[in-house]
UniProtKB/TrEMBL annotation, chain A:
Lineage, broadest ranks: Bacteria, Bacillati, Actinomycetota, Actinomycetes, Kitasatosporales
Protein name as catalogued: Uncharacterized protein
Organism for this UniProt entry: Streptomyces capoamus
UniProt-annotated stretches for the region Disordered: 1-20
Automatic annotation (TrEMBL), chain B:
Listed name of the protein: Uncharacterized protein
Taxonomic source organism: Streptomyces capoamus
Taxonomic lineage of the native organism: Bacteria, Bacillati, Actinomycetota, Actinomycetes, Kitasatosporales
InterPro entries: SCO2521-like
């Protein structure tokens, strides 16, 4: 585009809207998740944390080593994070839970750079609404999960023409075509309609059909599923989520000795290590217990159907290219997992 | 993906624009327009005040995997997303516009869905795309089990019109129109061209041959502008059709007032069209005489008003 066209566009669109702008973020090479533990587990078995980090340590080292040396020389930038589940349960307070958590990690030789609250992925996020030029607030609440929900573009099973949307099921997302529902009981089914199997769209000969529950409950009191919040969490770590072009869940520094008694007194993402590499990264690796495998399969099904803004993807692609770091073009291929034994 | 006919770009772009009067008694203000078109919470409505008030919704993607329309029954399959958006002009005329572009060929089997989401508004063929046949088939309309872009535009229109702030008390009888368009790149040495066809049932088709590198989104913008002005002409001509001559005892027909209140100020050709495509509008206008016809109709409405105003001096009650 030459200069005169650019000037023309500026003048043809109004000041209050203009073309959308996309905020740039700093990036590490790798975001390494050292664990995701249900609060109930921690409360019931305090020794669990020690065993957890001891089991994670060698795999965390392997994930770092797997990055190799960046083309630009030097060490790869790796930031570590830990997600605390304060959404499904709040049996403990930050003051009770966080110090032993950091201690147990340190004992295993691990540093938690960033600590995030799972409820932050659901929202509302404190400070998430921004005042507009006219002094009003564009919205009272900022909800990353809701933004991701609205960016879902369902994968169409073959035969989807646009005439009517695929048989979507409110609050659920599948990786293929659902089994048609029989409207009558088999005893009354005089037409002899037989059951038809569901089908995975990308099946290789045989299907692994998955139908993911994204949320439950009424809209006002919606309860997001663990799988959906985990997908939001991955997008946040990959730096691919924006609210109208603005960064979301930016880490807030935390340098106090103690922690408050209420989770909501903490920012959604805390930077505990002042020297940490950036929170957002080109690729992610999560070291998780194997029982999270079904959840993470669901995360992959969700991420495969999230439409990330082209400008955001383009920004990351340009940064990676400038650093000579190869990042997969598809979002779902940017996340990886380790499910170590004994975790 | 690049512009039409570029090495990595599409060889075909197709779309459909639906146009209607916003189903409410008065034009809506900018804030209301923003509420109506706010289809997603994470992206704002784009607003423009110059050269007229114009609001554009965020784009919405619809996934499809099906046979494209074709005139010769050639079997092919496309996978990807159709992009759609709603446009509100001067808070009064609502348009929904859906389009896609397609390259000449694609992988031999469907790729993971993320591959297609990285190319929004692009339908990638499985194998080769019979582009000419698809372009002709698209203008003829979809057959059973074929890609149906019109339905995508229609469902977006319906979604906006379901908004509870609309009172469905229309000030004018109007028709709803559909404009189906295709665009292919002109081969070297070939002139660009535009073929506009108008059917009685509110359907218009536009076959465009455009310079290499033209962005599909710019073509969609041009076609929205064509559809808007064609709709304005159609609507005003329909309203004036059979308008009784101003007899001594006749009052001011409501229809004249409504045309002045709601439509006469909306004529603004090329208002939001990419500069590179202004020539296409001008070429079309040259052949169809749209602007001349609009000016004549506008003059006729004003003349009628003046005439009736003069007569009403003798019969003041006629204005009541």
């Amino acid at each position: 585009m030459n200069g005169s066209e650019s000037v023309f566009r500026e003048t043809s669109f109004m000041e209050t809207s203009g073309e959308p702008r996309t905020e740039a973020l700093p990036f590490s090479h790798l975001s390494l998740e050292l664990g995701h533990v249900y609060m109930d587990d921690l409360v019931e078995d305090p020794t669990r944390l020690r065993r957890h980090f001891a089991a994670v340590r060698p795999w965390a080292d392997a994930a770092r080593a797997g990055l190799g040396t960046p083309n630009s020389g030097g060490r790869p930038r790796v930031s570590t994070c830990f997600l605390i589940d304060d959404y499904f349960s709040r049996r403990s307070t930050p003051a009770e839970l966080i110090p032993p958590l950091l201690e147990a990690a340190a004992e295993a030789g691990l540093t938690i750079d960033y600590l995030a609250r799972e409820s932050a992925c659901a929202g509302p996020v404190p400070g998430g609404s921004r005042p507009l030029a006219d002094g009003s607030s564009r919205r009272g609440r900022a909800e990353p999960a809701d933004w991701v929900l609205r960016r879902l573009v369902e994968s169409p099973p073959p035969g989807t023409t646009g005439f009517r949307p695929p048989a979507s099921c409110t609050g659920w997302l599948a990786n293929g075509r659902r089994s048609p529902s029989l409207r009558v009981s088999p005893a009354l089914n005089s037409a002899g309609t037989v059951w038809q199997p569901p089908g995975e769209t990308d099946a290789r000969v045989h299907s692994v059909f998955l139908d993911v529950e994204l949320w439950s409950g009424q809209e006002e009191k919606r309860s997001w599923s663990c799988a959906f919040l985990s997908a939001v969490w991955q997008l946040v770590r990959l730096g691919l989520l924006r609210d109208d072009g603005h960064a979301v869940l930016a880490p807030a520094p935390w340098e106090d000795e103690g922690f408050p008694a209420a989770w909501d007194a903490l920012a959604p993402v805390l930077r505990l290590n002042p020297r940490a590499a950036p929170f957002t990264a080109y690729v992610t690796c999560s070291v998780l217990p194997a029982r999270f495998l079904p959840v993470e399969h669901a995360v992959r099904v969700i991420l495969d159907q999230v439409h990330v803004e082209s400008e955001v993807l383009g920004q990351v692609a340009m940064r990676c290219a400038a650093e000579g770091f190869g990042v997969p073009s598809e979002v779902v291929d940017r996340i990886s997992y380790v499910f170590p034994p004994g975790l | 993906m690049g512009g039409l006919g570029t090495p990595s770009g599409p060889v075909l772009a197709c779309g459909e624009v639906r146009t209607r009067l916003l189903p409410t008694s008065d034009a809506v203000d900018e804030r209301t327009a923003e509420r109506l078109l706010r289809l997603r919470t994470d992206e704002r409505v784009r607003l423009s005040r110059h050269p007229n008030r114009y609001a554009v919704s965020p784009g919405l993607l619809t996934g499809v995997d099906c046979r494209p329309p074709s005139v010769n029954g050639a079997s092919s399959r496309v996978v990807g997303t159709v992009t759609a958006r709603a446009v509100l002009v001067e808070g009064r005329v609502l348009q929904s516009s859906a389009h896609f572009s397609a390259p000449a060929s694609g992988p031999d089997r469907r790729r993971p869905w993320g591959h297609y989401l990285g190319r929004p508004g692009c339908l990638i063929p499985v194998g080769r795309l019979p582009a000419r046949s698809v372009a002709e088939g698209f203008l003829a309309g979809p057959g059973p089990h074929e890609l149906d872009v019109g339905s995508i535009a229609e469902s977006l229109m319906a979604r906006v019109c379901r908004h509870r702030i609309l009172d469905f008390d229309l000030p004018l009888t109007t028709v709803n129109t559909s404009l189906r368009w295709t665009a292919v790149p002109a081969v070297e040495g070939e002139a660009t061209s535009v073929l506009f066809t108008k059917a009685d049932d509110g359907l218009r088709t536009v076959a465009l041959r455009l310079p290499h590198g033209t962005a599909p989104a710019a073509v969609a913008g041009l076609c929205e502008d064509l559809a808007l002005h064609d709709w304005l002409l159609t609507t005003v001509a329909y309203a004036l059709d059979g308008l009784p001559a101003g007899h001594e005892d006749s009052g001011l027909p409501k229809v004249l007032r409504s045309l002045v209140d709601h439509l006469l100020h909306l004529w603004m050709p090329r208002g939001h069209v990419d500069r590179t495509l202004h020539a296409v509008w001008e070429e079309l206008d040259e052949h169809t005489g749209y602007s001349r016809q609009w000016n004549v109709m506008g003059q006729r409405i004003r003349d009628q008003l003046v005439l009736r105003a003069v007569r009403s001096r003798h019969q003041p009650s006629a204005w009541d």
